[in-house]
Amino acid sequence: MIGTVSGYTFCSDVVGTIGGYAFGSDVVGTVSSYAFDSDMVGTIGGYAFCPDMVGTIGGYAFCPDVVGT
């Protein structure tokens, strides 16, 4: 632990804040104000999703191997 972000102690891999929350070096931006990692590429229904998620079921993102409800 090397310091604080918004009063919270953080580890060396925490490099800044998004929306007041600490994030690690692999977090590269926000989706609807939530931090997301570099492998997340957009939103479905306002939720961050990874490249392997291809659509929605009931408004929730799902991966290619999910085929029904």
Q: Note the main sheet.
A: 2 strands, antiparallel
Q: How far apart are the first and last residues' alpha carbons, in Å?
A: 43 Å
- The tally of domains stands at 2
Mean pLDDT: 47
Question: Which bin fits the share of residues in helices?
Answer: under 10%
Low-confidence stretches: 8-15, 25-41, 50-57, 63-69
Structure summary, number of beta strands = 10
| Overall SS class | mainly beta
Bulk shape: elongated
Q: What is the count of helical runs?
A: 0
Oligomer: single chain
What order do the helices and strands come in, and which of them pair?
Layout: E1 3-5, E2 8-10, E3 14-18, E4 21-24, E5 27-31, E6 34-37, E7 42-44, E8 47-49, E9 55-57, E10 60-62
Antiparallel strand pairs: 1-2, 3-4, 5-6, 7-8, 9-10
Structure description:
- This protein is an all-beta fold.
- The protein contains no helices and 10 strands.
- Mean pLDDT is 47; it is low at 8-15, 25-41, 50-57 and 63-69.
- Helices cover 0% and strands 52% of the residues.
- It folds into 2 domains: 1-38, no CATH class; 40-69, no CATH class.
Brief summary:
By secondary structure, this protein is mainly β.
Keywords:
69 residues; mainly beta; 2 domains; two-stranded antiparallel sheet; two-stranded antiparallel ribbon; 0% helix; disordered C terminus
